[in-house]
Recover the amino acids of this structure.
């Protein structure tokens, strides 16, 4: 686990300075975004960014917040509206979790996103990363934020490994040990570590010559050894059950509120068993309903 040291303090300063100059111009990093949407905007953006590229999220995020600028506004929406608005962002259960979280924020917290990490964790669909991201980036609190990019930077720069291991609770402890003592500095450092992993210290082709902390990188100093990769691989999307689920939802998003006859939904899918499995799983997840031989988005 990383230890606090003078070298770490220097890397904190160098990395934060680099971030202020090189950070991508993203909507949720603007003061006006926070002034308009507050912590709710941060929460929605973090839901959407889970396993989804930034370029796909930005237009959906703007449309979402224009339609539902507050948790209270979203709490009155129907599940069908929510699933339809989610469009092709992927992992559509996130839309229902976000909807339920909006209802819980409205009922439990008077429509204001809570600041406390434990209160955030108690909301539907919110795990360690999202809860701490909201606390750090919306409220500026000193809490460790850990995503795949941050785990990779820690593994290389501080531990000398080419790739991080599977996620564990120790990741939060490792990041916590690296945070600057001041709240504002720690929020910047969280964002800078994430940005470095996303843009420079990438998984397959790290650009070490552009890294602001290359001089103190344990992995680079060791000659960039291949120490193995034990992370779980995501299954191919094309031809998968996920692809079948996505095809079913796409058809139903574009249908009327009454839906379509069940046997007409992706009737030409090449694997009939996979089609039926996808429909059954979507019903089980509450993303679609079967009513009188028809399939529709949930009402």
């Amino acid at each position: 686990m990383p230890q606090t040291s003078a070298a770490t303090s220097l890397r904190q300063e160098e990395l934060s300075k680099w971030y202020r100059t090189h950070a991508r111009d993203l909507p949720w990093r603007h003061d006006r975004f926070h002034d308009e949407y507050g912590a709710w905007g941060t929460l929605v953006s973090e839901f959407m960014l889970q396993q989804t590229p930034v370029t796909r999220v930005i237009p959906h995020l703007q449309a979402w917040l224009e339609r539902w600028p507050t948790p209270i506004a979203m709490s009155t929406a129907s599940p069908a509206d929510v699933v339809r608005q989610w469009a092709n962002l992927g992992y559509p259960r996130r839309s229902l979790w976000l909807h339920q979280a909006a209802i819980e924020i409205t009922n439990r917290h008077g429509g204001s996103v809570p600041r406390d990490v434990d209160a955030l964790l108690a909301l539907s669909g919110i795990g360690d990363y999202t809860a701490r991201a909201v606390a750090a980036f919306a409220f500026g609190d000193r809490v460790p934020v850990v995503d795949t990019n941050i785990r990779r930077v820690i593994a290389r720069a501080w531990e000398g490994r080419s790739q991080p291991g599977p996620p564990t609770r120790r990741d939060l402890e490792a990041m916590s040990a690296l945070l600057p003592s001041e709240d504002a500095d720690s929020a910047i450092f969280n964002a800078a570590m994430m940005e470095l992993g996303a843009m420079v210290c990438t998984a397959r082709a790290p650009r070490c010559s552009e890294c602001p902390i290359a001089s103190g990188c344990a992995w680079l100093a060791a000659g960039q050894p291949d120490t193995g990769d034990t992370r779980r691989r995501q299954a191919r999307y094309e031809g998968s059950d996920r692809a079948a689920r996505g095809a079913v939802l796409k058809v139903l998003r574009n249908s009327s509120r009454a839906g379509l006859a069940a046997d007409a939904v992706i009737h030409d899918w090449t694997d009939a068993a996979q089609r039926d499995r996808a429909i059954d799983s979507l019903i089980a997840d509450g993303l679609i309903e079967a009513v009188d031989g028809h399939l529709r988005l949930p009402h």
